[in-house]
Design a protein that fits this description.
The chain is of the alpha+beta class and 301 residues long. It contains six helices and nine strands; from the N terminus they run E-E-E-E-H-E-E-H-E-E-E-H-H-H-H. InterPro entries: DNA_bd_Ku70/Ku80 (IPR006164), Prok_Ku (IPR009187), SPOC-like_C_dom_sf (IPR016194).
Length: 301
């Protein structure tokens, strides 16, 4: 069993539930080291004193915040721990909200919450089941590794999932970041076709059907270069659809999407029909076998 990366208590009202926090996700990107081109010399990073040019041990490094004109306030690690709310051991829930009310832009990273001991497993189960029944998420704050987090705690099957959230002031204003954006579309015909395309391409969310194809390509690139083979790139960069071609592109896309859906429906129907036929064949075979057994018994008698 994996070790928890944080442990403490989920607090709501006067109730405290001891829990441990575990990573719920892992990325599968390819690791690369850095080398000087044309050599096998690794590039290393060192913590260097900019005045003396000497390397400094990690244990001798403290943090400093600039307050203006090159002046810094130095802060020790234990000073940060001392001001952490609840000594970094409390997940304090302030309110419960409908999960659908949270804009997805706020979600950051997901973790599992598990009971930290079996003696309090029943209180964990009670909290989890209550969240599931009410379809609510508990909004909490907690401190981990010198940083305060906003979090949403929800039930997911047998486990509680904690998703860290961006605070409101961490979300950048789209207008300030991007500038002017297109006004509401007035092209009714094109809008209707775009809606038709979305409807034709709609389906159920199945996470397992999506694969990280880029990482697979990187693996093949590394393998090919290791074997001394040339790497051939066949995929071309897409081009923007011209406004004059938009209607025809939408129409063709809708027709193609509907054709794919129709093909999928036919395959599904054929598969069901085949399954039903096999079941009927098995029943018929079973009846014939039973009939033979009865005939054999009569003859024996």
């Amino acid at each position: 069993m994996a070790r928890s990366i944080w442990s403490g208590y989920v607090n709501f009202g006067l109730v405290s539930v001891p829990v441990g926090l575990y990573s719920a996700t892992q990325e599968h990107e390819i690791d690369f080291h850095q080398f000087q081109r044309g050599t096998s010399d690794r590039i290393r990073y060192k913590r260097v004193n900019e005045r003396t040019g000497r390397e400094v041990d990690y244990g001798k490094i403290v943090k400093g915040h600039e307050v203006g004109d090159g002046e810094y306030v130095i802060v020790e690690p234990d000073e940060l721990d001392d001001i952490a709310p609840g000594r970094s051991r409390s997940l304090q829930i302030d309110t419960f909200v409908d999960l659908d009310e949270i804009d997805p832009i706020h979600f950051q990273k997901s973790y599992y919450l598990a009971p930290s001991d079996q003696e309090n497993a029943s209180s964990y189960a009670l909290f989890r089941d209550a969240l599931e029944k009410t379809n609510r998420a508990g909004i909490a704050t907690f401190v981990m590794r010198g940083k305060e987090y906003l979090a949403a705690i929800r039930a997911s099957g047998k486990v509680l999932v904690l998703a860290t959230l961006f605070f409101a002031d961490e979300i950048r204003d789209s207008t300030k970041e991007i500038g002017d954006l297109p006004v509401k579309s007035k092209a009714d015909k094109q809008l209707k076709m775009a809606v038709d395309l979305i409807e034709a391409m709609s389906g159920e969310w199945r996470a397992a059907q999506y694969k990280d194809s880029y990482t697979e390509r990187v693996k093949k690139l590394v393998e090919s270069k290791h074997k001394g083979k040339d790497v051939v790139v066949t995929e071309e960069e897409p081009e923007a659809t011209a406004t004059t071609d938009l209607v025809s592109a939408l129409r063709a896309s809708v027709d193609a999407a509907r054709a794919r859906r129709a093909g999928g429906t036919k395959k599904s129907a054929a598969a069901k029909k085949s399954t039903a036929k096999k079941a009927t064949t098995k029943k018929t075979a079973a009846k014939k076998t039973a009939a033979r057994k009865k005939t054999a018994k009569k003859k024996a008698a």
